[in-house]
Every structure is written in structure tokens, then in C-alpha cells.
Design goal:
This protein has helices spanning about 15-25, 30-35, 40-55, 60-75, 75-90, 95-100, 110-125, 130-140, 145-165. By secondary structure, the chain is mainly alpha-helical.
């Protein structure tokens, strides 16, 4: 099944205003938004969840650790590339981004605890071990942040699964960060 990458002009009427807002906000319309626009509810939900995730207690670097970990675990080539580029714009240290792109440990102990907990949450489909929860909170994270990681994972499931099904083409803006999981 093929999915169209909608433009503002070709999108369903209920998605046009949303897409116009995205384009105005970031200067272009990412292909992911164009694909999601086929379901106006999906593109609106994705953006709303993103707004809410930005309001969590996590720093921009921590949010990108969550996003890139989920993207890596779900093998989403589009999202790893996009979030690598976004992380660079947000001044996330390059060594952290490179570690996440390779599924490797992060030198910072607290960020590594966040990566490991996020990885565990994805790999166990939401059934992390008691040890994983204990290690996460022992690193200085809270019960609230356990739930905020779930919010970030949920957001990335929306985009990862959409990209898997639609084979979303990578935008030129993210091309320099192209990625594929190494065996």
C-alpha cells in the first residue's frame, strides 16, 4: 500500500490548518507531517503530544535521549535522522548523539540510566523489570519521570509506526544525518 506525502494543497481539509502551522513554525513541511495528514486526527495528536512532552521535567538533551533511543530500538530510519539533526540544533553534544545512533552507552551516568530505562520500556513493551525501575530512580529520576518516559515513547510509536508503514522519504533537511541500523 502506498501513502501520499501530502502538501498543504493536497491534504484533507481538516489537516490543512495544522500543516500550515507546522510550515510557519519550522519553515518547511516535513514529509512525516505530510504522510500523517492523511489522518488529520493523527497529525494533530502527534503535534499535541509533542507540545505536552516539551512541558515535561526533562531537558532538551534528555528528551532527545528518549526519542533517539526509541527510534533506534524501533529501527526508524526517518526518525533517527530527523532527531539527530534536531538534537544538533538543540546543542545536544555530538558524542551523545553518536552513541544513541549506534545503540551504545552514553558516558554521562544519568543520561545512560535514562537510555537504559527507555530501551527496557521499549523492548519489554511496557513491562520493565523492578531492577530497571530501581536503577532509573537511583540515578536521580522520579516516579513522575517514569511516566514522562512513557509519554515520549508513545509519541515516537506514532511516528515510528507511521514511517514503517508509509516508507516516508527522508527530507533534504535531514539528509546529512541519514541512518540505518548496523547489524
Amino acid at each position: 500500500m502506498e501513502f501520499q506525502v501530502h502538501t498543504i494543497e493536497t491534504a484533507p481539509e481538516d489537516a490543512k490548518e495544522t500543516l500550515q502551522g507546522v510550515k510557519k513554525s519550522i519553515g518547511f513541511l516535513p514529509n512525516l507531517m505530510g504522510v500523517m495528514a492523511e489522518s488529520p486526527s493523527l497529525v494533530k495528536a502527534y503535534l499535541k503530544v509533542g507540545e505536552l512532552f516539551d512541558q515535561t521535567s526533562f531537558s532538551p538533551t534528555e528528551r532527545q535521549v528518549i526519542f533517539l533511543t526509541v527510534n533506534y530500538e524501533n529501527e526508524c530510519t526517518y526518525c533517527v535522522a530527523a532527531h539527530s539533526a534536531i538534537a544538533a540544533m538543540q546543542k545536544v553534544p555530538a558524542d551523545i548523539v553518536e552513541a544513541l545512533r549506534g545503540g551504545a552507552p552514553i558516558a554521562d551516568d544519568k543520561l545512560e540510566a535514562l537510555r537504559l530505562f527507555t530501551k527496557e520500556l521499549v523492548q519489554t513493551r511496557g513491562w520493565p523489570s523492578d531492577a530497571a525501575l530501581t536503577q532509573f530512580t537511583a540515578a536521580g529520576y522520579t516516579r513522575t519521570q517514569v511516566l514522562e518516559v512513557i509519554l515520549g515513547v508513545g509519541m515516537k510509536v506514532l511516528s515510528n509506526y507511521t514511517n514503517h508503514i508509509a516508507h516516508t522519504p527522508l527530507d533534504a533537511a535531514f539528509a546529512s544525518a541519514k541512518w540505518s541500523k548496523q547489524a
